[in-house]
Amino acid sequence: IEDTDKDKVKDEYVKSIFDGLDWLGIDFDGEVVFQSKNIERHIEVANQLLKEGKAYYCYCTPEELEQMKEEQRRLNKPIRYNEKWRDKCEADAPSGIKPTIRLKTPNEGETILKDLIQGEIRIANDQIDDMVLIRSDGTPTYMLSVVVDDHDMGVNTVIRTSDHLTNAFRQMMIINALNWDIPTYAHMPLILSKEGEKLSKDNGLMTISETRELGYLPEALLSYLLGLGWHHESEDIVDIYEAFKSFDVKDMVKSPAKFDIAKLNHINGYFIRKADDKRLAELIKPLIFNSLGFFEEEKQELLIKSMHLLKKRSKNLIELAVMAEFIVEERPIMISNASRKIISQGQDILRLVIKAIEPIQNFDYDNIKEAIQELISKQGLQIEQIAPLIRATVSGSESSPPIFSVMEIMGKDEIIKRIEDQIC
Questions:
Q1: How far, CA to CA in Å, does 73 sit from each of 65, 77, 114, 210, 308?
Q2: What mean pLDDT comes out for the span 282-311?
Q3: More confident residue, 301 or 229
Q4: Residue 200 burial (CB < 10 Å; 0-12/13-18/19+)?
Q5: Which of 162, 226, 357, 413 shows the smallest number of beta carbons within 10 Å?
Q6: pLDDT band at 233 (very low <50, low <70, confident <90, very high)
Q7: Which of 209, 210, 154 is nearest to 183 (CA)?
Q8: Taking Cα atoms as reference points, which of 291, 341, 296 lies closest to residue 321?
Q9: Using an 8 Å Cβ cutoff, are 260 and 193 in contact?
Q10: Which residues contact 337 (CB under 8 A, 6 or more apart)?
Q11: Which DSSP string corresponds to 376-424?
Q12: Cα separation of 233 and 243, whole Å?
C-alpha cells in the first residue's frame, strides 16, 4: 500500500482496496506491506546516495522553485529543476532552510527501457531533471520509496498502466545509482471511454464498489477487464480460470482500450445465466428487502426455484431483484395501473380460470397448460385473452417469465388466492 503521501491517504480508501480485491476473489501472498512503515529504510538509502556523491542537498525555497518555473514558461522551455545546488558545497548552505535531497541524474547518454508490451523505448538522460528523493520535511517521495520497497521485497516484474512510463525512467535512474537489478517492466494500455477520452465520472468511470452496487458479478467484471487490450483466440467471453492457461502479458496491445458498458452488460448477463440459483437468491435477497421493507425467510426456497426463469431475462442483480419481487411479495400484491385495467375487463374470465385449475392434482406446467387449453376450447376464447389476465393478477405487471412456469413454481393455492384478491 503506497501511503507515503498522507494528504491523499485515508483509512476508507485502503479498506476499499481490500474489499474490492476480496470481492473479486484476488488473493495475495504474505503480509500486506505499508510503504509508510519503511520510511527509515528509505531515508537510509537516500543517505547512502548522499555519502556516495550520487545525491545532494537542495536549499531552494518553494518561492525560488516557482520563480524558476515562471522563467522557463516565459522562455517556452521545458519545466525542470535547473540544478542550482548540484555542485555547490555545504559551506554555501543558507541558514534556517530545511533542504530536500535530490538525485544526481546523468546529464549525458540515454536510458533504454525494454518493455514487455510497449517494446524498446529510449530517452536522453538530460530530459530527466534531478528528482527529489527526500522532501524538506524529512519524508521520502513515492519515487524513492517504491524503488526501495520493490527491491527489498524481491519484486522482479512490474506491471502497471502506460501513464507510468515516465516514472519507469526515473525509477531506473535511482536503481542504476544504487547498482541494483532493474525489474522487468510491462506498461499496459489505459482504459478510455467509448469516445476515446480519459475515463471520468461523466463518461463511465466506476469504482469496484460502485460496480458491485450496480449488480455486476465479480466473475463478469474480471472477464471483461481481462479482455480489454488482450489478444486472445478463445470465445467472446473469457473464463478467467481458463485464461490462466493461455494468458501472456506480451500479448497485450499498446493502444488504449475502450470501456464499453454494453459489452460489460452482455458479459454480466451471461454469467448471471450461468450462476448457481441458490447463490443468486442469496445475492438479491437484501435488494428485495431494501425495496419491499421485508423478506419472509419461508419464501427463500420459492425464490431459489424461480431463479432459472428470472435469470434468463436479467443483465444485472438489480434487474433480477426487481423481477423477483412479485414472487415473494405479500398478498394482496401491488398491481400496476395498466395491469389493473386489464384485470377490470376480465373478471368473468378470471372466475373461469379458477374453476379450470382448482381440480388439478399435480400442479405442473403440462397440467396447467392442458387445463387452460381446455378452458379456451370450451369457452371459445384465445390464449391472448387469458395469459395477460393471469400474468397481471399473479405478477402485478404486464411482463413476466412464461406464465405457466411461474404458476407451477408458486403453487396452486397461492395462484388461486392472488386471482381471488383481484376479483370484485
A1: 12, 6, 33, 41, 65
A2: 93
A3: 301
A4: exposed
A5: 413
A6: low
A7: 154
A8: 291
A9: no
A10: none
A11: HHHHT--HHHHHHHHHHHHHSSS--S-HHHHHHHH-HHHHHHHHHHT--
A12: 10
| Grid cell listed for 256 | 488504449
d(C-alpha 38, C-alpha 400), whole Å: 59
Grid cell for residue 30? 504474505
Length of the chain: 424
What is the rounded CA–CA span in Å between residue 392 and residue 347? 12
Mean per-residue pLDDT, 48-68: 93
Q: At 154, give phi and psi (nearest 5°).
A: 75, 25
**Any bridge partners for residue 134, and if so which?**
101, 140
* Calpha distance 58→137 (Å, rounded): 13
Of the candidates 321, 283, 310, the one whose C-alpha atom is nearest the C-alpha of residue 405 is 310
Cα–Cα distance measured from residue 36 to residue 206, given in angstroms and rounded to the nearest whole number:
28
Q: Which residues contact 169 (CB under 8 A, 6 or more apart)?
A: 111, 113, 123, 128
For 62-100, the DSSP string reads HHHHHHHHHHHHHTT-------TTTT--GGGPPTT-PPE
Which of 42-46, 86-90, 116-120 has the least mean pLDDT? Answer: 86-90
| Residue pLDDT, tens place only, 195-223 | 888 887 777 778 899 999 999 999 999 99
Q: And the C-alpha cell for 336?
A: 400496476
The grid coordinates listed for 24 are 473479486
Query: DSSP state, 140?
Result: B
Rg, Å, the chain Cα set = 33
Compute the half-sphere exposure of residue 135: CA atoms within 13 Å on the CB side of its CA.
11
